[in-house]
Specification:
The protein is globular. The protein has one domain: Nucleotidyltransferase, domain 5, CATH 3.30.420.140. The N and C termini lie far apart (31 Å). Strands 1-6-5-2-3-4 form a six-stranded mixed β-sheet, with helices on both faces. It has 171 residues and is of the alpha/beta class. It contains five helices and six strands, in the order βαβββαβαβαα. Strand 5, helix 3 and strand 6 form a beta-alpha-beta unit. Helix 4 packs across helix 5.
C-alpha cells in the first residue's frame, strides 16, 4: 500500500488525488491515529462509525522502529482498525524537515507490513494544542507528560475525521 500526504483542507485533498479506497472511504470504519515522537508514540482510535477519536495509549519506543511498527500493527489488528493516519509534522512554512522524513519512513513501514491503507496527515501545532487543553483543565505536569502523546494523536485523528465528514458534505 502506498502512503500519501493529506492536508487539512479539501483543495489539498483533491490536488493530492483524494479517491475512494483511501482511509477516507468507506465512512463506517475504525481508524487509528498516531502521533510519532522520538521516544513515544501516541495512539488514538476512532469509534466504529469513524466520527470521534479517543486517546488509546502511549507506546514507548526508545530505539527500535521495527518493534514500534510491529506494536502499532498489533494494536490495529486487536482493535480491528481498517486504516492508519500518521501525524505528519510539517513546518509552519510548509517545508518538510527531519521529523517529517521519519514520519514518511514509519508510514511506509506500516504500509509494507500490512494490507491497511496508511495516510499522512498534517499535524501542525497538535502537541501545543494538547498542552493548552491539559493546562486549561489544570492537569498536573507529571500527568500531562503521561497523556499528552495520546491526546495529540486524538487531535490528529479528530482533525482527519472532521475533514472526512466535511468532504462528504455532512454537517
Amino acid at each position: 500500500m502506498a502512503t500519501k500526504i493529506l492536508r487539512n483542507n479539501s483543495a489539498n485533498l483533491n490536488a493530492l488525488g483524494y479517491r475512494k479506497g483511501s482511509v477516507a472511504q468507506p465512512f463506517n470504519m475504525r481508524i487509528m491515529g498516531l502521533d510519532l515522537g522520538d521516544k513515544r508514540i501516541g495512539v488514538a482510535l476512532s469509534d466504529s462509525m469513524g466520527w470521534t477519536a479517543q486517546g488509546l495509549e502511549v507506546i514507548a519506543h526508545p530505539g527500535s522502529q521495527k518493534a514500534a511498527v510491529e506494536k502499532v500493527l498489533e494494536l490495529a489488528q486487536k482493535y480491528e482498525a481498517e486504516g492508519i493516519v500518521v501525524g505528519f509534522p510539517v513546518n509552519m512554512n510548509g517545508s518538510h524537515g527531519g521529523r517529517a522524513e521519519k514520519a514518511k519512513r514509519f508510514a511506509r513501514q506500516l504500509a509494507a507490513g500490512s494490507d491497511l491503507q496508511v495516510d499522512l496527515w498534517d499535524e501542525r501545532l497538535t502537541t501545543m494544542e494538547a498542552e493548552k487543553l491539559l493546562l486549561s483543565a489544570d492537569v498536573s505536569r507529571s500527568k500531562r507528560r503521561k497523556v499528552i502523546d495520546k491526546m495529540a494523536a486524538a487531535l490528529i485523528l479528530q482533525g482527519y475525521l472532521d475533514n472526512r465528514t466535511h468532504m462528504r458534505g455532512e454537517k
